[in-house]
Specification:
- The complex is a heterodimer of chains A (490) and B (477).
- By secondary structure, chain A is mostly helical.
- Among the domains of chain A are: 181 residues, no CATH class; 75 residues, no CATH class.
- Chain A contains 23 helices and six strands.
- In chain A, the strands form three sheets. A two-stranded antiparallel ribbon of chain A has the order 1-2.
- Chain B is 39% helix and 11% strand.
- Chain B contains 16 helices and 13 strands.
- In chain B, strands 1, 4, 5, 8, 9, 10, 11, 12 and 13 form a nine-stranded mixed sheet that branches. A two-stranded antiparallel ribbon of chain B has the order 2-3. Chain B has a two-stranded antiparallel ribbon with strand order 6-7.
- In chain B, strand 6 and strand 7 form a beta hairpin.
- The radius of gyration of chain B is 23 Å and the shape is globular.
- Classes of the chains: A mainly alpha (490), B alpha/beta (477).
- At the A-B interface, helix 1, helix 19 and helix 22 of A face strand 7, strand 8 and helix 9 of B.
């Protein structure tokens, strides 16, 4: 989008003066619901009022420790994940493939929307965006599921290990033509993106390096749902890659790539953009890269340092991230306490389709560079659609879109506001609802606006959440807040 | 007296005449700037409107404006050439005819409502769709990369407070899924994109309950300003669009095509009082590498029927005088047809403008079939940026000092819009053309006094009255 192009150069802004030193709560920067919600919004999809409340009563270290605890792998969508893909699918099998890809999307969206207190789901989507792979090209659901599982296993594990996995990942071998890359007939598609998009960035290697990387990566193919090295297809000759000559294979060139200091910076810059702000602070990025290299590319120490830093908790950063469609759809549903499932408030299919409508279809990023993100998510076209979507979440009415039927069960608005500390105090209530749902303080103007919707001309002391008609006013307040510009930021 | 057409053709050929004419134009138009759009963001529903029809894919200019007496044309197009008998039916003169489907364009031409400019392109032409489209949208040179569009820069120039002060109506409306690069200004989009108005209206909610505070420019403040701005735009204009759409009426039947539907919507919005200055529509499918005769033929039919319906509608509504239409395409096509009954990417091609205020006719010499570039394409006669700058200067009454900032390479303007003879119509020299001038005019008109020969044709007649009417109400510099 052009908006983004014009913003590529970093704008002049008042940035955080704080560094990676550990955030220590002070009177000026207390550990309160604003900062607890900030930490949770950046690391999980849609924190709930009670999660924010218990984080405030806990400490940043404890919460980050919990967020970075390894998770068990979830149950797969179905037993077909253990079958080999159709070797030469006919049109009926193509249809089955498409249904299973959709099933994988719904399975994943359910995991996102019903997630627990872990950074895993944010990281899985981060890696999917980073190692972007399109189902529309790959088609084979088993391979897409396998790649998603690899992202889960390496969610905040070892970056080099993840890159090694991606070098021979079956879905990737399909998507970037690695399976066609053989001695004498090198295909540079993956070799180029490995350096340009996955590890180093343009300007840090030559066109000759691209050719040599392709040669080193020869021989891999996909056999069923696994990758396999066929030795006769491998290029056994000498390759000069990033200045080193040898009979390199995929491991050899990956070692060379990870010997370059730029590689750690590249991924740390992207992590910074995910967790802090679109325009990176290069000093911080350099320090994170140093930590990553000192820890042999283990990601956990980097994330731990960043998420507990004074830089991360600085006021200037809070509320600076434009929500992606998945954050807006699944995150909003989760923060309202809605459960996803066939007999629950809403179906995964509804969220998948809504996120798609807003520009982010799981398993189908627009191209190998992933989603453009940032301001491209918001336009005069998509913003009203975002409003319509949040309205649907609050209304919870089953409905048709075209011929698709979406079964929904409405939320309980009274139960929702009773999850806040002071639901009987109208002023305290609108303040805490506003601060839970948006990253911005509820100032006097906002407070009056919220009260006018909640009370509709009644006095503050008239407020009673159990009164008849309270429900309607709560839903109006929620719809209003979810349509505020600040709600689009997290 | 030489005919207007001959005059225009001559002026196009001779550089000296063109410059002299440019000077004349500048004088005639610079006087309007005090009451013109330079006076700020105040939009009016009597302002002039520009409607651009993009012919996406690269329209074959040679089969659109046919040199039907030219043997070089017929031999370059052995299977695709338009037979001279067909082109003659839509003839513009003894040697030029329009594609047989362009009967409405022929009607516009005969009524003095069509200006066909031959040979519009740019130096070192790029034959990539995307790149050449960007060049046409930004108004850049072949080796220049701009991030703003020519219309975006124009709208920036006349709305210096945008986006801090948002105009009451969108400055421009792009009837497409995303905003065209041509409408990107220095602060982002200068118009709105409108995929499907009904969907858009039903989505956008009532009630703009947004409170502005002065955020300090921190990252969060910066992004909040952005979302607020998009929010304001999307909420505010939905009401205006809905209102104009409801008030406006189409007075003719349109064909049932996408392009016609889009032009019908524009006519309805204009009639309903929408004050936007620029509208953009696109017609897709002009990349006719194969099977061109049928494909190009149906595109021409669609373009013709939609355009003539639009023109007739505007005339019936009474808005024709303030609407100028223009077709643009990223390039023309190769002179020589290819081996698959189609044509490949080429260079310059004609641009068409329609409306009642044009210096109508045929502008520019024929392209030279005997002097082609190394790919077998025409060299251009006019730079497309000259056309743009002339439209900005003569239609939107932007002084040349400003158009030269928007489009620096366009130093010579073309005679596109008929100037309004404000000075010549201010008989009592009181600075404004008003009723007192009319009384003098009515008196002198009967006596045949040559003081009232406004159009300079040597006699005082009804044509002078029409000129006076065009100037009525306007102020001298």
């Amino acid at each position: 989008m052009n908006e983004l192009t014009s913003q590529r150069a970093a704008p002049k802004l008042t940035r955080s003066a704080a560094g990676l030193e550990r955030y220590v709560p002070t009177d000026a920067q207390p550990w309160n619901n604003v900062r607890a919600a900030h930490l949770l919004r950046r690391t999980i999809f849609g924190p709930t009022p009670s999660e924010i409340d218990s984080a405030v009563r806990s400490s940043p270290d404890t919460v980050v420790d919990q967020l970075l605890t390894e998770q068990r792998l979830p149950d797969p969508p179905d037993s077909w994940v253990r079958e080999d893909p159709f070797p030469r699918p006919d049109s009926a099998q193509r249809k089955i493939e498409r249904e299973r890809v959709d099933e994988t999307r719904r399975w994943w969206m359910t995991l996102i929307a019903n997630q627990g207190l872990s950074i895993t789901e944010k990281m899985v989507l981060f890696w999917h965006d980073h190692f972007a792979t399109q189902a529309i090209d790959v088609r084979k659901p088993q391979l897409l599921f396998k790649q998603n599982t690899t992202f889960r296993q390496s969610a905040f594990g070892n970056f080099k290990g993840l890159v090694l996995s991606m070098n021979t990942d079956p879905a990737m071998l399909y998507y970037l033509d690695g399976r066609l890359n053989r001695v004498g007939k090198p295909n540079e598609n993956y070799g180029r993106e490995l350096m340009e998009l996955f590890t180093m960035g343009v300007g840090n290697y030559t066109e000759a390096d691209v050719g040599e990387a392709a040669r080193a990566l020869t021989g891999w193919t996909v056999d069923g749902r696994l990758s396999r090295l066929i030795d006769s297809r491998r290029d056994h000759g000498q390759k000069t890659f990033l200045g080193q000559t040898g009979n390199w294979n995929d491991l050899g060139i990956t070692n060379s790539i990870f010997d370059q200091p730029v590689t750690a910076k590249f991924i740390c810059r992207k992590l910074y953009q995910e967790f802090v702000y679109r325009f990176p602070d290069e000093v911080i990025v350099g320090q994170l890269a140093q930590i990553l290299r000192e820890n042999n590319y283990e990601l956990k120490p980097v994330l731990e340092t960043l998420l507990l830093s004074a830089h991360f908790f600085d006021d200037t950063t809070i509320g600076s991230k434009i929500k992606s469609p998945v954050e807006l759809t699944a995150g909003t549903a989760r923060s309202l306490g809605l459960k996803v499932g066939n007999d629950d408030n809403l179906t995964a299919e509804f969220l998948v389709d809504q996120a798609d409508e807003l520009g982010q279809k799981l398993l189908d990023p627009p191209n190998v560079a992933g989603w453009q993100g940032y301001r491209s998510w918001i336009s005069t076209n998509t913003l009203p659609k975002r409003h319509l979507h949040t309205d649907k979440l609050v209304n919870g009415e089953s409905h048709f879109v075209g011929r698709d039927f979406y079964a929904m069960k409405p939320m309980d608005p009274v139960a929702y506001i009773k999850s806040f500390p002071n639901p009987w105090d109208a002023i305290a209530l609108v303040r805490s609802v506003g601060q839970c749902l948006t990253a911005f303080p509820v100032d006097k103007d906002r407070e009056e606006l919220f009260l006018s919707v909640l009370l509709e001309g009644a006095e503050v002391y008239d407020w009673n959440p159990d009164a008849r008609g309270a429900e309607f006013r709560i839903t109006n307040l929620l719809k209003l807040i979810l349509e505020l510009p600040e709600f689009q930021l997290g | 007296m030489i005919s207007r057409r001959k005059f225009l053709k001559r002026s196009g050929k001779a550089a000296g005449a063109s410059i002299a004419l440019g000077g004349f134009m500048a004088r005639a138009y610079s006087q309007e700037t005090t009451i013109g759009p330079m006076s700020a963001a105040a939009l009016s529903d009597t302002d002039r409107v520009l409607v651009i029809i993009r012919l996406d894919g690269g329209n074959d200019g040679l089969n659109t404006l046919v040199h039907y007496q030219n043997n070089d044309y017929q031999s370059a197009r052995p299977t695709l050439g338009i037979p001279s008998t067909d082109a003659r039916r839509n003839n513009l003169d003894d040697t030029h005819g329009l594609h047989p489907s362009l009967t409405g364009f022929k009607q516009l031409h005969d009524e003095g409502n069509l200006l066909s400019i031959q040979g519009v392109g740019y130096p070192n032409p790029d034959r990539s769709h995307f790149r050449s489209t960007d060049i046409w949208m930004t108004g850049s040179g072949s080796n220049e990369f701009l991030s703003t569009g020519w219309l975006g820069r124009y709208l920036d120039a006349v709305n210096p407070d945008f986006p801090n002060t948002l105009p009451e109506h969108p400055l421009a409306i792009d009837i497409g899924p995303v905003l065209s690069l041509s409408l990107i200004g220095k602060s982002g989009g200068m118009g709105i994109a409108l995929r499907d108005p009904r969907e858009f209206f039903s989505l956008v909610r009532l009630g703009n309950q947004i409170i502005d505070t002065n955020e300090i420019p921190t990252p969060s403040g910066f992004e909040l300003d952005f979302t607020r701005q998009v929010n304001r735009e999307s909420i505010q204009y939905s009401d205006e669009l809905r209102g104009a759409g409801e008030r406006g009426k189409n007075k003719v039947e349109y064909p049932d095509t996408t392009l016609a539907g889009q032009l019908a919507l524009i006519a309805r919005l204009i009639d309903g009082g929408m004050k936007s200055r620029v509208y953009l529509v696109s017609q897709r499918g002009y990349d006719t590498h194969s099977n061109q005769l049928d494909r190009h033929g149906s595109l021409m039919t669609d373009l013709n029927d939609a355009t003539i319906a639009f023109h007739n509608d505007l005339t019936a509504q009474g808005h024709a005088r303030r609407v100028l239409g223009m077709t643009v395409s990223e390039f023309g096509r190769r002179v020589e047809e290819n081996g698959s009954a189609g044509t490949d990417h080429g260079t310059s091609a004609p641009v068409f403008l329609f409306g009642s205020e044009l210096q109508a006719g045929l502008l520019g010499p024929d392209p030279d079939f005997r002097n082609l570039d190394d790919r077998g394409d025409f060299f251009h006669t006019y730079d497309f940026r000259q056309v743009y700058a002339s439209v900005l200067n003569q239609w939107f009454e932007i002084p040349e000092t400003v158009t030269s900032a928007i489009l620096p390479s366009a130093t010579t303007l073309l005679p596109i819009v008929r100037p309004i003879q404000t000075d010549a119509s201010d008989f009592n020299n009181d600075g404004i053309v008003d009723f007192s001038d009319f009384l003098e005019f009515a008196d002198g008109f009967q006596k045949g006094d040559t003081r009232f020969d406004i159009d300079g044709d040597g006699q005082t007649g009804f044509s002078d009255f029409l000129e006076f009417a065009r100037a009525f109400g306007r102020r001298r510099s």
